[in-house]
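Action item from last week, closing it out:
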Amino acid sequence: MHAFQQARFFSSAVQLRDVPPAAGPELVFAGRSNVGKSSAINALAGRKRLAFASKTPGRTRSINFFDLGGGRRLVDLPGYGYAAAPRAMRASWEHLVAGYLASRRPFAGIVLLTDARRPLTPGDQQFLDWLAPLEAPRLVLLSKSDKLSRAERADVLARTRAALAQAGFTAEVTLFSSKDGEGLEQARALLTAWLDK
């Protein structure tokens, strides 16, 4: 049985004071609004409604914590980069996310989801800058890969790996689709190994 099978919702935090004390290794999921983060978490867990997906970008405004057993947690950060959100709301999200990342050590791993059709947006780049000082294994999932042709998939995978290498950012990179399962088993095995270290 993999770690994600026993996932259950634990708590939400809309302010830093609401963040629960760490109990063990935490696996962090991040990505821009509507990139497919909730769908990816549900696919990894083999559940339909563990994390709630929305067609409205910017709906998730809290950090959501899921218990994986043995003190381990999956942490779903609020999406970033939704331009229509009021500036004060975007600033509060950034404060919450940056504060959480600065207050936790070490992480079991950090997963960044970026849309395979538009990888490494400016918002993704900003998040990568936040990650730079953190010592944690990293996985970049090129989500919604089912929307690309085989040739396009190979191209975006190569281009993303090259861009990250040029930026000096070390990470595993894989194509991922919660719809057709591409990259699912690979990601699940890697993340389970990180949690079990």
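Closing note: The two ends are 16 Å apart (CA to CA).
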